[in-house]
Amino acid sequence: MARTQKYKKIEKSFASKIQSGFLSFFHMIKSAAIRIFKVLDSKLTIMIVPHSQGKVINFQTNVFALGLGIVLITGIVSSFFYFDRRAIDSSSEISKLTSTNRETQASLDELRDENTNLLQVAKRFQTSLSQSLSLLGISESGQVSQASASGSDLSSFFNTKETVTGSLRETADVKELTSYLENAVQPVEQIGKMLENQNTLFTEIPSIWPVSNPNAHISMAFGPNVHPITGQWYIHKGLDFSTYRSGDPVIATANGQVVTVGYDASFGNYVIIKHKHGIYTRYAHMMYSIVTKGQFVSQRDVIGYIGNTGVTTGPHLHYEVHIGSDVVDPAKYINVKLSD
Questions:
Q1: For the whole prediction, is pTM greater than 0.85?
Q2: What is the chain's mean pLDDT, rounded?
Q3: Do 241 and 219 touch, CB atoms closer than 8 A?
Q4: Distance between CA atoms of residues 320 and 316, nearest Å
């Protein structure tokens, strides 16, 4: 029991000390606040004395008001410098953006010009493609047909629609052009396949010159001519090619098989090649040949060399094309412009 009373006395003593400490602390804070208030509330008199004989201006204030005024003025001045700096930075940024905008506008104008040129080239391409497809009997499809049936101006040609607000019309033009070219791929591929098939045919008919020398020329055309030796009119059954010299290569004008290698008093050394479709070619007056009977040759293979054998007035190649038993003008196959 005595111990319990002892503990209670200790608790009361501890609580009393804590209460006393808190009271002392608050009293100290209160005293400090009163002293600070008294300092801030201290009266000050500010006098403005002009150099002239003017009236002296004075006004009274306290420390708190003066300090608050100084803080406000300092804040205003600092804000002025801060926003002035921001304004300078913003002006510099605006100048950079303006310069970039000018460059972008110039690039955009150039892009528009190139886009216009592209559309004009595409229009010419479309016209040529339509004509080629028509000649080859290939039907146009989709956008290609629609573009072909449109008017002459570019907007109707590509069926250009109005774009939404804020978008570039050139973007719509490019999209339409892309769509058109995608639809044109199939006809162009068909043309490529057709040409690939035709390429085989062109190697099977005598469609090239029998002399590869760039100085070669036709010295006598097919048909009625004056014989260079007898001076009489006669029918020349081939084309004479001359390079002004002997020894230049003679080439096969189409794929075929050599059926004759021989010599004739009139033709001299000559070679006859059999091609498909009943076509034969003769190469005469050669210096000598380098093929044998039965040999298969390809177009542009060398079969001999220009000479002066047989009845001639100088080195040249006499070249003939036969279809069955008929002699035809070789120029119709090699599509050459006859020399005067």
A1: no
A2: 80
A3: yes
A4: 13
